[in-house]
């Protein structure tokens, strides 16, 4: 029987469990009380990283999760992380970059209703995440509502529905119905070898959602702060206002000339940034901005945090590797 390590971080899933701190034995006993079937799938052990709302998840928690996986890597066949849905895609992206050489499944899951509720999606998500973690899937994934997504390609799109996530620009890795259907052609190539964990991140990044009549003066004030990179969530294929007093191009130009990175993502869920399509995009490109291409805004932000942590003040290196796929996050 396969061995799976269940790593708990908090979120709606575990709201049945009272108290700020959980002992691993109490946690796993509580899980088995509600979902005894998991004992038929695999031998389960658990580890508690945190028991918090995922809005409070940060770099320090990503590092703890990665450390737990690394310490237990040889002893388990797969890893399932129970996590709140609000920041799940950020954590999945971070782990996908941190776990170099990963050749085993790391699957994040959670729920829209607590495990203790009668009408809950938690049981289905947990059972199937654990079963999929027994398969040879060599990447960080998110399982939700019968679909397995590449973690750094997923996006939360629904607050109320059980079908809370989608993968806008990359096909799913597996889906669960009467049978489990695996799509190995969509997997990353197995990275057999020693697992290495990169733990350096920088939080000197900032994201701005562009809106009509935004004043460039407000953005200019951000250049006075100790920030290294900006992600501007632009219109359509990456367009920014470019005429007269509405133009945001001066911000992009001044930021780049000041040694900062400006990356352009899109407010659209599907499709990719193409700065060559319209003049509004061409002006952004000529000002020195980077394109997030088909990365989600969340993944682009985490990737910049990761690359800035890795390369520090070498902004040219960060720019160079921004376009290089680390874990299948960009086409």
UniProtKB/TrEMBL annotation:
<comment type="similarity">
    <text>Belongs to the asparaginase 1 family.</text>
</comment>
<dbReference type="InterPro" id="IPR006033">
    <property type="entry name" value="AsnA_fam"/>
</dbReference>
<keyword id="KW-0378">Hydrolase</keyword>
<feature type="domain" description="Asparaginase/glutaminase C-terminal">
    <location>
        <begin position="204"/>
        <end position="322"/>
    </location>
</feature>
<dbReference type="GO" id="GO:0004067">
    <property type="term" value="F:asparaginase activity"/>
</dbReference>
<dbReference type="GO" id="GO:0006520">
    <property type="term" value="P:amino acid metabolic process"/>
</dbReference>
<dbReference type="InterPro" id="IPR027473">
    <property type="entry name" value="L-asparaginase_C"/>
</dbReference>
<feature type="active site">
    <location>
        <position position="85"/>
    </location>
</feature>
<protein>
    <recommendedName>
        <fullName>asparaginase</fullName>
        <ecNumber>3.5.1.1</ecNumber>
    </recommendedName>
</protein>
<dbReference type="InterPro" id="IPR037152">
    <property type="entry name" value="L-asparaginase_N_sf"/>
</dbReference>
<feature type="binding site">
    <location>
        <position position="54"/>
    </location>
    <ligand>
        <name>substrate</name>
    </ligand>
</feature>
<feature type="active site" description="O-isoaspartyl threonine intermediate">
    <location>
        <position position="12"/>
    </location>
</feature>
<dbReference type="Pfam" id="PF00710">
    <property type="entry name" value="Asparaginase"/>
</dbReference>
<dbReference type="Pfam" id="PF17763">
    <property type="entry name" value="Asparaginase_C"/>
</dbReference>
<feature type="domain" description="L-asparaginase N-terminal">
    <location>
        <begin position="3"/>
        <end position="184"/>
    </location>
</feature>
<dbReference type="InterPro" id="IPR040919">
    <property type="entry name" value="Asparaginase_C"/>
</dbReference>
<dbReference type="InterPro" id="IPR027474">
    <property type="entry name" value="L-asparaginase_N"/>
</dbReference>
<dbReference type="InterPro" id="IPR036152">
    <property type="entry name" value="Asp/glu_Ase-like_sf"/>
</dbReference>
<dbReference type="InterPro" id="IPR006034">
    <property type="entry name" value="Asparaginase/glutaminase-like"/>
</dbReference>
<dbReference type="InterPro" id="IPR041725">
    <property type="entry name" value="L-asparaginase_I"/>
</dbReference>
<dbReference type="InterPro" id="IPR027475">
    <property type="entry name" value="Asparaginase/glutaminase_AS2"/>
</dbReference>
<feature type="binding site">
    <location>
        <begin position="85"/>
        <end position="86"/>
    </location>
    <ligand>
        <name>substrate</name>
    </ligand>
</feature>
């Amino acid at each position: 029987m396969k061995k799976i390590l269940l790593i708990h971080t908090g979120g709606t899933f575990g709201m049945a469990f009272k108290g700020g701190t959980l002992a691993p034995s109490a946690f796993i006993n509580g899980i088995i009380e509600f979902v005894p079937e998991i004992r038929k799938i695999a031998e389960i052990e658990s580890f508690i990283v945190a028991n918090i709302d995922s809005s409070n998840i940060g770099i320090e928690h990503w590092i703890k999760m990665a450390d737990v996986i690394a310490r237990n890597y040889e002893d388990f066949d797969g890893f399932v992380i129970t996590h709140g849905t609000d920041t799940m895609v950020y954590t999945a992206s971070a782990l996908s970059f941190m776990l170099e050489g990963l050749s085993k499944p790391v699957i994040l899951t959670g729920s829209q209703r607590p495990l203790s509720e009668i009408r809950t999606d938690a049981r289905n998500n947990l059972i199937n995440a654990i079963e999929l973690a027994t398969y040879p899937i060599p990447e960080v994934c998110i399982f939700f509502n019968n679909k397995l997504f590449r973690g750094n390609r997923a996006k939360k799109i629904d607050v109320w529905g059980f079908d809370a996530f989608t993968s806008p620009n990359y096909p799913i890795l597996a889906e669960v119905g009467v049978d489990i259907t695996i799509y190995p052609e969509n997997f990353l190539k197995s990275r057999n070898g020693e697992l290495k964990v990169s733990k350096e991140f920088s939080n000197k990044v900032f994201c701005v959602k562009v809106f009509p009549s935004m004043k460039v003066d407000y953005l200019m004030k951000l250049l006075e702060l100790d920030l290294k990179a900006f992600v501007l969530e632009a219109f359509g294929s990456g367009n920014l206002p470019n005429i007269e007093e509405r133009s945001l191009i001066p911000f992009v130009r001044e930021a780049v000339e000041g040694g900062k990175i400006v990356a352009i993502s899109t407010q659209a869920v599907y499709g990719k940034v193409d700065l060559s399509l319209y003049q509004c995009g061409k002006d952004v490109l000529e000002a020195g901005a980077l394109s997030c291409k088909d990365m989600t805004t969340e993944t682009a932000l985490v990737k910049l945090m990761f690359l800035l942590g890795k390369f520090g003040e070498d902004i040219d290196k960060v720019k160079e590797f921004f376009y290089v796929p680390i874990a299948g996050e960009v086409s």
